[in-house]
Structure formats: C-alpha cells, structure tokens
Amino acid sequence: MDGSKIVAMDDAGAVDQEIDGGEFACPAFIDSHVHFLLGGRALAHAHLAGVSSREEFERVIRAKHEALPDNVWLEASGWDQGNWQKNSKPNASMHTQDHALKNSGHGMPDQTWLATCGNRPAIAWRMDQHVCVVNRAALNIIAQRHDLSRDPVGGTIARDAAGNPTGLLLEQAAWTLAIPCVPEPNSQALRAMAHAAARHLHAHGIATVGSMEYARDIIATLSPLRHELNIRILATILDRQWPIDWSLGECVAADDALRIIGFKSFIDGTLGSRTARMLEPYCDAPESLGMFVELAESGKLSDWLREGLSRGWSMSMHAIGDAALRAALNAADAAEKSGVRARESLRIEHGQTAHPIDIARCEDRWLSMQPLHKYFDAGPALPRLGAARMDRFFCFKQFHEAGARLAFGSDWPIVEPDCLQAMQTAIAGATAAGAVTEHRSSLDAEIALQAFTNQAAKCLRVGDRCGTLKVGLAADIVSLDRDPLTNDWSNHKPNIRFTCVAGERIHAPG
User: Fold this and answer.
1) What pLDDT, on the 0 to 100 scale, is given for residue 8?
2) Given 141, 162, 181, which residue is the final one in a domain?
3) Residue range of the domain that includes 89
4) Longest Cα pair distance anywhere in the chain, in angstroms?
5) 22-40: per-residue pLDDT in tens?
6) Which of 133, 165, 181 is the last residue of a domain?
7) Sign of the four-CA dihedral 136, 138, 144, 147
8) Does the predicted TM-score (pTM) go above 0.90?
9) What are the backbone angles phi and psi of residue 157, rounded to the nearest 5°?
10) Residue-wise over 472-484: b if at least 16 C-beta within 10 A, else e?
11) How far, CA to CA in Å, does 329 sit from each of 279, 348, 363, 460?
12) pLDDT by residue (tens digit) across 326-335?
C-alpha cells in the first residue's frame, strides 16, 4: 500500500506499510443509500426505535424534554406503531379511527403523546421518515405558515371526528408543512453532526456512501468538510421541485472525497405507513391503494427522467409499492424509446414489492435495495399484502436471476447502516421477529457481499476507484473475524475487527 492506494497484494517488500487483514479482509463496505447529514442529526434525537407502548414513548420524550435547554425544538425519531400493536387486538373504535385517519393506520400517535413537552414545539418521526407527529405548540407554528384546512397534494393531515388536525402528518404533509418550520442547526452543530455521522459509518465498516442530500447542505456543510471526514460521498441531489434546476449538479467541485452523481425523485411512500402505491388494495385497508407523490402524481416523472438522463446524470427513483415500481419501469421505457440510454444511469431505490411480470423488466437495471427494510417490514408486510402477495416482497433472488444489478444500502437513519446484519437478512432471511421470511428470495453470501462492495461501487459510478481489493484502487479495507463466504449466517454474523480508509486505520472496536 502506498498512501491511499493499493500498490501490491501479498508482497510486503513493495509497499510503504503492510496491513494484516486477519481472518478475512475485503473491500470496505459501500452503502449505496444513506442520508448522511440527516443521519448525523438523528444521532442527537430522542430515540424511539423499539419503543413498545405509549407509556414508554412518553417516558422517552419526557426524559429528552427535561435534558434540553429552553427555546429549542424537541426532535425524536424511530417509532413504529407495529411495536405497540403486537399484543393488542383491533376493536371497533380502532377501526373507526383507522377509517377517519384514512391512510394513517390505527394506533399511530397524535399530539397528546407529546404533551409532556408543554409549550416546547416537538416533532417525532416514524422510522421511515415519511410520517411524523407534532404537538400542539408545533401545530400552532405550522398553522401560522400554512392552511391546515386542506391536505397538500401528495400528503395527508390526519384529523379527528370533528375534522381537527390530530398532529399526525403523512408524506407531503410532513415534508412540506412540518420540516420548513423546524429550525436548522447552526453551522457548528452541523459540523459536529457530520463528524459524528462519519464515525458511525466507520464503525460499521463503511468507507463510501451514496448519500441523498439537498444542494444547500452539500454547499454549506459537506463541501467544506470533505477532507476531514475520511469518507467518500457520492451525492444525489434531493431538490426536485419542477422544473428542475439541473445546474445544481455542478454546485460544488468534484474530487475523490465528494462528487455529485445525480438526482432523486419519490414515486410513492412506504409499506409501514400504507403510503406505498400498490397495484391492488391493502388487505388491512381495502379502501386504499396508497399514493403516488410528487412528480409521479403530477405526471412529470417521465419528463424528469428523460431530461436528467440526457444530461448524463444518474437518476434515482424511490419506488416501494409494486405500482410504483411499474411506474418507474414505464418511465424508463419511455425514456429509452425517446433515444436516451437508461440502463446504466437509472437507479430504482428500494423495490420492496414487485409484480412477477415486472421483475423480468429489470434486466440490466440497477436495483438499489435495503435488506434491513425487509428485516423490519416483514412483520407488517403480511397484514398489508396478505399471504397471496408475499411472493412479491423483497425479491432479491428473483431480481438477480432476471439479470438485475443489485446494490445494497441501508437508507440510514431509517435503519442502522449495519451491512453485516443486512447481509444476514439477504442470505438467511432473518427478520426482527426472529422468524425467517420469504427464504426463497434469499441470496448466496458472495452475491450479497458484492452488493455491498464492487456492485455498489459500480452503481455509484466509482467502480474504477474503490469496491475491489486491486492494485491501483483505494486502500479501503474492512477486516472481519470470520470468512463471510463460509459463515453459517443462520446462526451468527461476522464481527468487524477494524476499518481502513485510504490506507489509514480509522476504526477498531474497543
């Protein structure tokens, strides 16, 4: 190894320093889908992941409130209503509430769950970041800026029987109404959050990320810090208001530490929130197909895709429902018919549910998938989809056999950027409930490992720089305590010994 690159393999006499990889060494992991700055910010939130009752939810919120200085918002994230519904049985009042709240689902929190914050504005995000609940103080602030008497396009304001907002906001109601009202951290805080995010990723063996970011944050925070973070960031622009300002892709200079590679659009929501757009109604909400959002809802998705591809950008589309996946493929077909190449430069993000006839249409297309979403969504998937449609859920193997190109990621902070636990789910079908779900869709270890290394690098357009232990490529290495290719993934997963980025040992547990 010479500086940041590999110059020799198994030839210590040719290098300036030698790295002992231990039991097994492979390229440092590449997470193809994170929200880097949001992840750093979420590390400071009140953590609601795993909370299993309203009482526990309120206890976490109260403790965070008491620890905060005055005059700042309380931010929390990670709740999942499924965790406190596991041992409860729906009753008539729950069904009535479910109908009244349309797509929100029974058992979701309302503003009263945040009552311990008093006059402090508070916002708590569902684990998927597509739904939030705010308290009365925050609702009052939002109401000063927005008309809450009607739903925004592509979003839902949950209401009680009298028609008053409950504090629960879904999709565009959360993103366009609530987010702009939450104060941004100052530059010093953002800097600390970025460093914390990098350390957190290093601890999981990650040296490179594909990160979804707004242009303003790339300019103000990521670009000035690019040579301090010891992580490669391939950024995808989240700014998607139509018409698109394509010049945002050139807003910062590109180098090995930071590079803008493309743009992203959302087609639908999420399965857990019943906002993913489905071809057939949800089994546990038969009046609902979910929703199309943003450019898909307005009919501009094909124009957005064609224009971006024609400019050479990597275009990323969030598609979780099977109808959303079909919409993404239809847009890709339309772009190709117009003469634009889409196979290499199109990324379908998530692809959690797929109709069998659409799997074959994914040949040679990039599927950027997140196995830990299967880990957490397997529980609600059965009531949402019903047994007859579970063969559409996380079709890793079917996509691979159809010739799709798989790149894996986490969507952190939606879930932890734990590549090894994600591999365990992709290989052994392990889920949060401790059961094996849809094992017929599982992959072998080599394919799963490639999806977090060389395939992810190719998906993010850096296959010539990293993702493979090869002379001339980046000296990004993760050392594991056992061989993942021969490991019994059904019983345990390997552990990380250390992470090396550009020839420098960045993280070692303990």
Assistant:
1) 67
2) 181
3) 73-181
4) 78
5) 679 999 999 999 999 999 9
6) 181
7) negative
8) no
9) -100, 110
10) ebbbbbbbbeeeb
11) 14, 9, 11, 20
12) 999 999 999 9
* Residues 6 or more apart in contact with residue 316 via CB below 8 angstroms: 212, 236, 262, 263, 264, 265, 347, 349, 368
For residue 12, tell me if it sits in a domain. Answer: no
Confidence at residue 95, expressed as pLDDT on a 0 to 100 scale: 34
Q: Is residue 13 part of a domain?
A: no
User: Tell me: the pLDDT tens digits for 142-169?
Assistant: 999 999 999 998 889 999 999 999 999 9
One domain for residues 379 and 465:
yes
Q: Same domain for 142 and 251?
A: no
**Mean pLDDT for all residues in the chain:** 90
Q: Which single residue is written with the structure tokens 């799997």?
A: 359
Residue 156 CB coordination number (10 Å): 23
Is 233 found in the same domain as 171? Answer: no
**Burial (0-12, 13-18, 19+ Cβ within 10 Å), 496:** buried
> Both 331 and 363 in a single domain?
yes
Q: What is the DSSP letter of 72?
A: S
Sort 488 into a burial class: Cβ within 10 Å, 0-12 / 13-18 / 19+. exposed
Q: What is the CATH number of the domain that holds 224?
A: 3.20.20.140
Instruction: Determine the residue type at 422.
Output: A
Helix (H) or strand (E) holding 55: helix 54-67
The C-alpha angle 387, 392, 398, rounded to 5 degrees, equals 135
**Percentage, residues of the chain above pLDDT 70:** 92
In this structure, is residue 311 part of a structural domain?
A: yes
Q: In this predicted structure, what is the pLDDT of residue 235?
A: 98
Helix (H) or strand (E) holding 362: none
